[in-house]
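Sanity check

After download, print the first record. It should look like this:
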Amino acid sequence: MSFLLQPRTPPVPTDTNAVRVGLERWRERAAELTGSEDRDTAAAALECPGTRALIEGIVAHSPYLTRELLREQAFVVAALRDGIDAATARIWRDFEAIDPADGVDAVMKALRVAKRRAAVAVALADIAGLWDLVQVTGAISETAERGLAASWRHALLEQIRRGKLPLEAVGDPIAGSGLVCLAMGKFGARELNYSSDIDLIVLYDDALPVYTDHSELRQAFVNATRTMVKLMEERTADGYVFRTDLRLRPDPNSTPRPFR
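Expected structure tokens:
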């Protein structure tokens, strides 16, 4: 079996015991995969020198990535087989497929699964030496942007359905809503790293004709912002997407912060 994702600079594991334990867990997890093709691919990945070196390097040095590697093993073996470009394209499709009309729990889970897979894919490309720093930080920033857009769609649709925003509950809720969400700092520069939070400024255009004489407009956007923050940063069994920070310097107290 051939694998397109091959490391240019294979990592060198220094903890042989961690490698042994990690490979045992890889095999155990592979045996639990539902599809025979996935099980065969997971086993074959340990027979290929390049992919085995990549897996060994991860399980030897990163408990976090080891956990996520095993948790998303079916996705990982597909990424190893089909290559990093196919893996990232699949992740972007997953973000786009999140239905804003779904319940909050379903949206939160879908966001966290897509983020988890994105983190694994970026790490694979990074550790394998396939991407440079600009590509790595760009992909992490793209993940944040897509997760944020999906969160806003659900948050705005929630307000529309409650009759708090006089917009149509069809199409993309962001389009024509007057919402402006500015990415600041590393996010704005597309330089997010693995542990970055995202700094945001949220504005809205209250001069749109559709909002004429709408007295609850400000509160509706405040509530939507609160929902967006919940979707992005609340920790669940599936983790979180990105921590968000709307308390920007130099004076975060100069504007209301009811979502904190």
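If your output differs, re-run the checksum step. Summary of this record's structure: Strands lie at 179-184, 198-204, 244-245.
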